[in-house]
Amino acid sequence: MTCREFQDAAASLMLRELSEGLDASLSRHADNCHGCGAWLQKQQSLADNLATLRLRTAGLEAGPHVEGQLLRAFRRSTVPVVTVPEVSRSWPFSLRLSRWFEVSAYAAVAAAVVLVVFLGIELVRHPAKSAVQEQASQVPPAAVGQQAHAVQPAGAAKSVAPVSSVLPPAHLSRKASQGSTVGQSQTSDDDDYVALMLCDPLSCSSDGQVVRLELPASPGAEAQASRQMADVVVGEDGVVRAVRMVN
Amino acid sequence: MLTERTDEQLLAQALAGEEEAFTALYRRRQGPVFRFALHMTGSTQVAEEVTQEVFLFLLQRGHDFEPSRGALGAYLFGVARNYVRRALERNYTEAAMTSSTDDDARHLLVESDPTDAIARDQTSIMVRKAVLSLPEHYREVVVMCDLQEMSYAQAAEALGCAIGTIRSRLHRAHDVLNKKLRHSVNAGSPVSGVAARCLS
Q1: Which of A44, A82, A89, A136 is most deeply packed, by most CB within 10 A?
Q2: Could you report the per-residue pLDDT of A142-181, keeping only the tens digit for each?
Q3: Which of A96-100, B65-69, B82-86 has the highest mean predicted lDDT (pLDDT)?
Q4: Cβ of A66 and B52 within 8 Å?
Q5: Per mean pLDDT, which of A118-122, A213-217, A243-247, B87-91 is the most reliable?
Q6: Which residues 125-184 of B have a C-beta within 8 angstroms of A?
Q7: Do A107 and A180 sit in the same domain of this protein?
Q8: Are the Cβ atoms of A75 and B118 closer than 8 angstroms?
């Protein structure tokens, strides 16, 4: 143990612990080191002196006249305990009535708040439903079917409506049958054409040309055998209007 | 019956008007408060005045005590500390009118202490004088921790500071005490042979 370690350890002890006894390692170091031994002796002597003073003054107390004066002051300052009467009996009738009105007012305000919150939630939850119901109530029964078709979702309209409206006109088929270089497998049935989604009904009514192409049967097919012939209706603007697979 | 009750229970009953509870609380707590004031001022008369003031304060302002903030004992020491400070200022002022130095004033305080009859041993007198001559913030921790056997935590609660502050003040106070006592021995104070060996 070094001197610094010794002083740190001894200083962390309280004085009364120093006076009662030391750790063996501290005692050994104090015996071997003259400086630390002297320091420890000073600390222990101080602890002994303070302990002596503490013992000699341990029984000292304030004189009895202090207690007497305090008791006199206590009796002077003591206030008799006031018993609080029961509230319901002591309150006048008008006060009780006003109390009842106050409670009723609080209850009414609470009920109004609950009602407003409930209505607000209902309005937020069903705004579209209420608008459709209003329109249905104003439209005559005959037009209800058309209105209902108009409000169908966009996905449903995509799959049903455009096919008939964008079918290529009959003169396109005629042109295809005249201008085609490969006429063996050509068919005059316009119903085989499938309109493409990009075809605008207005622009599809204009003239166009039918071009026979050889297309892969599937996106992944590379072999020549898996290719298929198709007639493609190309508008004047270069946009493909419709396509027909040739068997 | 009353001795089994806690300080807080006794205080509540005393504030409700029970004289027996107040008496029990006073008899339980007046000794440490009186000795603290005695060691701080060196005067039995001042210590009794401080003790009386502390318990009068408890009667008048006891409702302000909150048990959640600490024990009643520490609260009483805190109140006593304030009254001790006032008493020391008052006594120093009175002493300054009759004497020119603080040392003389302290000497007057010590000489007026009847407990000197009890502490006849010269070493004890010397230690008491050395403690009284300490700066107030050192004296407080020496009185509380060494002479009242309070723990560091209790002293910290009573003085309203950290435990580390108590520890460092106490360490410094012991150094100062050792120097003062060694100086007294070298100056040829009347010290008994045993005490002289202890203070060497």
Answers
A1: A44
A2: 444 444 344 444 443 333 333 333 444 444 444 444 444 3
A3: B82-86
A4: yes
A5: A118-122
A6: 127-128, 131, 142, 145-149, 171, 174, 177-178, 181-182
A7: no
A8: no
The answer as to whether A237 is a domain residue is yes
Q: What is the mean pLDDT of chain B?
A: 79
Rounded to a whole number of angstroms, the distance from the CA of A7 to the nearest CA of chain B is 12
A146 is a domain residue: no
Helix then strand then coil, in percent of chain B rounded to 5, is: 80, 0, 20
Shared-domain flag, residues A174 and A237: yes
> Which carries the bigger pLDDT value, residue A211 or residue B103?
A211
Domain count, chain A: 3
A226: DSSP letter? G
Domain annotation for chain B: domains and CATH numbers: 1-117 (1.10.1740.10), 119-200 (1.10.10.10)
| Whether A111 and A168 share a structural domain | no
User: CB-based contacts of B128: which residues, under 8 Å, 6+ apart?
Assistant: A53, B39, B42, B110, B119
Q: How far is B30 from chain A (nearest CA, A)?
A: 7
Model pTM score: 0.53
Q: Please report the pLDDT score of residue A242 as a whole number.
A: 84
Is A203 part of a structural domain of the chain? Answer: yes
CA neighbours within 13 Å on the CB side: how many for B27? 11
Q: Supply the pLDDT for residue A43.
A: 83
- Give residue A116's domain range: 87-140
Q: What angle do CA B20, B22, B23 make, to 5 degrees?
A: 65
Shared domain for A107 and A48, answered yes or no, is no
Task: Tell me the shortest Cα–Cα distance from B192 to chain A, in angstroms.
Answer: 12
The rounded distance, in Å, linking the Cα atoms of B48 and B39 is 12
CB contact under 8 A, A46 and B27: no
Instruction: Look at residue A30 in the predicted model and tell me its pLDDT.
Output: 83
> How many A-B residue pairs are in contact by the CB < 8 A criterion?
111
Q: What does the alpha-carbon distance between residue B199 and residue B193 come to, in Å, rounded to a whole number? A: 10
Q: What tokens does A129 get?
A: 């439903």
State the Rg of chain B over Cα: 18
